[in-house]
Specification:
Elements: H1 12-31, H2 34-39, E1 47-48, H3 58-64, H4 74-83, H5 95-98, H6 100-104, E2 106-113, E3 118-119, E4 124-130, E5 135-140, E6 144-152, E7 154-158, E8 164-166, E9 171-174, E10 180-183, E11 189-196, E12 205-206
Helix pairs in contact: 1-4
The protein binds zinc ion.
Zinc ion binds near residues 141, 145, 174, 180 and 204.
Length: about 210
């Protein structure tokens, strides 16, 4: 699938406006949900940092099928789709850890955080996308985590918890060090994820099989 070509008419101010609009949609998403508000207050130290776009092949999959949104998540989903070609996408994992198909149809970027498009040291807000029929293997990390589902859906697994299928508006909490995994079924999933606590810039640790 071809990657979207940057529009030469779009300049830095336009890109900044897209990130500002995305942050505003994220703030409304946070404000409307007591689970998110209780997990972490909206940061008060956000500062925009220009970062070069970095595209991954998963971006084309996201743009062609982001999964169904709910009425409440549509504004955030559409803001994320608009900003997605200008985001600094990352893969983090290796083919040995997750396989080639996963790397081809996955990607994440940090909207806000220590290394985000908006810098904050109070939390980390990342956007993750997985195409349909992928398995995100068991892993854990020091920060506590709250997944929220923006569009599509998936099956969430965690040590000591019931496995649950979640769709738009659903959320899932992971404790510090609690192992968890995610499988997408027939739909892709677009997630908005918060971290809080120490080691906000560290990558997750894959569990040894
Ligand atoms: Zn996690």
């Amino acid at each position: 699938m071809p990657l979207p070509q940057p529009d030469p008419v779009i300049d830095d101010a336009d890109i900044r406006a897209l990130f500002d609009a995305t942050l505003a949609a994220a703030r409304a998403w946070h404000a409307a949900d007591p689970v998110q508000r209780n997990f972490v207050p909206w940061p008060d130290d956000l500062a925009y940092v220009p970062r070069p776009a970095s595209q991954v092949t998963g971006l084309a999959h996201l743009l062609s099928d982001p999964g169904e949104a709910s009425e409440a998540s549509l504004a955030l989903r559409d803001a994320l789709l608009a900003v997605a070609p200008f985001a600094e996408w990352r893969l983090t994992y290796t083919e040995d850890e997750v396989g080639k198909d996963f790397l081809d149809r996955f990607g994440w970027f940090e909207l806000a955080g220590p290394e985000g498009h908006f810098r904050t040291l109070q939390t980390r807000m990342t956007i993750g996308f997985w195409g349909a029929g992928l398995h995100y293997p068991w892993h854990d990390h020091i920060p506590e985590e709250l997944y929220t589902i923006v569009s599509g859906g998936g099956r969430f697994m965690a040590d000591g918890e019931e496995t649950r299928n979640l769709g738009p508006g659903g959320s899932r909490f992971h404790r510090s060090g609690q192992r968890h995994a995610l499988t997408t079924l027939e739909a892709p999933i677009l997630t908005f994820v918060y971290w809080r606590g120490d080691a906000l810039a560290d990558p997750p640790r894959m569990s040894v099989a």
